[in-house]
Design goal:
By secondary structure, the chain is of the alpha/beta class. It has 16 helices and 15 strands. Bound molecules: pyridoxal-5'-phosphate (PLP).
Length: about 425
């Protein structure tokens, strides 16, 4: 078997020195956050909630934003740059003429791409003199990433974790605690907004929107605490562009270029981080690449309405212009729970609205996506996170279309995390017991 391009590596000194901010390259101005018609101003509250540098990045129109040297050190410590693999085993099994490449965010120390922004937010929070970080988590990947980042930079961390997932991921809970984090099942009795729901139903499954409200309320009350969000916001997608920027350099080395860029999408940080540098090439260099965001039909937010909505359940955040299913809509829990969120990042939403991004939503029984993950495991050898199984399913489905149509496309997909702590999910859905 030819080994050429099987693994495309970057040297340590090829780690990007800047992130890519797509805002100045968008075909239309990004609609800004707004206040609802009634109640106190949420927009004016933002400087009290978000880390100063992150808020500056949120509004920035600079195309390139420097990654501080101290943070680049942390990226190196976390094992960046990460390899790009050519999926030759999978291609052979599928008998596809497509050339398939995947980025290996599963090499992350905590198991997902979330460390890329966790390290940035923790780094800036320490610079600003905060002592504690407060956040939400859905799948648990973001909570673990922030617990890890807080520990590396010497801050405390409090995590509100959607109860439906908290209940079944015992090892991930202990993982967060090992980093020194305090973790509460959400809705909890620790905040006013959590208590209101918890008192009515102590088994309330929770949602990411509720957990975000709890993290925000916690940080609002304590001047030494900064609130950190793991997805949706512009600065989060910005930090994640390190993935796509590395991938672009790797494609240059492989002397190839993707026709199709695929990744899974909950709030948009994974998809955005991987795809936005390539979207930039379409917007500014005339490239013809297509983009597909893979979702669950438990939360097909990109098929919702494009309108202003809150990012959280208790309406603490400003209104963001985004594709949304409604911020208080109940969504059925799934194993790939990191994809269960009512809204999609304003940047990705605008690009979708303008026709640059396609989407697919897979059935919420997850049998199809987990079967595809199994095929990937058996041919490529890596166990993906349940969320990443959606990227893989979409990439395989597209490679099979190439086979049917006899076209030789180049397909790039991101495997955003590993599934070592998600075996119960695989066992249940695939009926392995
Ligand atoms: C492994 C993994 N991949 C992808 C995602 C989706 O990321 P986002 O919500 O930013 O789209 C998550 C979210 O938790 C995740 O844990």
């Amino acid at each position: 078997m030819p080994t050429e391009n099987r693994q495309i590596r970057l040297e340590v000194d090829e780690l990007p020195k800047q992130w890519y901010n797509i805002i100045p390259d968008l075909p239309e101005p990004l609609p800004p956050p707004q206040d609802p018609e009634t109640g106190p101003s949420r927009v004016e509250q933002l400087p009290n909630l978000l880390i100063r540098t992150c808020l500056g990045q949120e509004m920035s129109t600079d195309r390139w934003i420097d990654i501080p040297d101290g943070l680049r050190e942390l990226y190196l410590q976390a094992g960046r740059p990460r390899p790009l693999f050519r999926a030759r085993g999978l291609e052979k099994a599928l008998g596809t003429p497509a050339r398939m490449y995947y980025k290996s965010e599963f090499y992350s120390p905590t198991g997902s791409h979330k460390v890329n922004t966790a390290l940035a937010q923790a780094y800036y929070a320490r610079e600003d003199g905060y002592e504690r970080l407060a956040t939400e988590t859905g799948a648990g990947q973001w909570g673990t990433a922030l617990s890890y980042a807080a520990s590396l930079v010497g801050l405390k961390c409090t995590v509100y974790w959607v109860r439906a997932v908290y209940r079944w991921k015992a090892s991930r809970l202990n993982f967060m605690k090992m980093f020194g984090a305090e973790v509460h099942a959400s809705p909890s009795d620790k905040t006013d907004c959590g208590r209101e729901l918890y008192d009515k139903d102590q088994n309330h499954p929770g949602s990411l929107g509720i957990a975000i409200s709890e993290g925000l309320e916690d940080a609002q009350r304590d001047p030494k605490a900064a609130y950190c969000l793991g997805s949706v916001l512009n600065h989060v997608l910005l930090h994640q562009t390190v993935i796509g920027l590395e991938t672009q350099k790797q494609f240059e080395k492989a002397d190839d270029y993707p026709d199709l860029v695929i990744s899974c999408l909950g709030g948009g940080s994974n998809f955005g981080g991987f795809a936005l540098p390539f979207v930039g090439d379409v917007l500014t260099k005339g490239k013809k690449t297509k983009f597909i965001a893979a979702q669950s039909d438990a939360a097909p937010n990109l098929q919702g309405e494009y309108r202003y909505d809150h990012a959280d359940h208790a309406e603490i955040t400003p209104l963001l212009k985004m594709y949304t299913l409604g911020h208080q809509t109940s969504l059925v829990p799934i194993k790939g729970d990191g994809l269960r969120y009512h809204g999609c990042s304003p940047i990705i939403s605008l690009l979708r609205h303008l026709g640059y991004i396609d989407t697919i939503a897979y059935p919420s029984d997850e049998k199809h996506v987990f079967q595809r993950a199994l095929m990937f495991l058996r041919t490529e050898g890596f166990l993906p996170a349940p969320e990443s199984a959606y990227s893989i399913a979409c990439a395989i489905d597209e490679a099979l279309k190439c086979k049917e149509e006899g076209v030789e496309k180049v397909i790039a997909f991101n495997v955003s995390g590993h599934g070592f702590m998600d075996m119960e999910g695989y066992t249940e859905v695939l009926g392995l017991e």
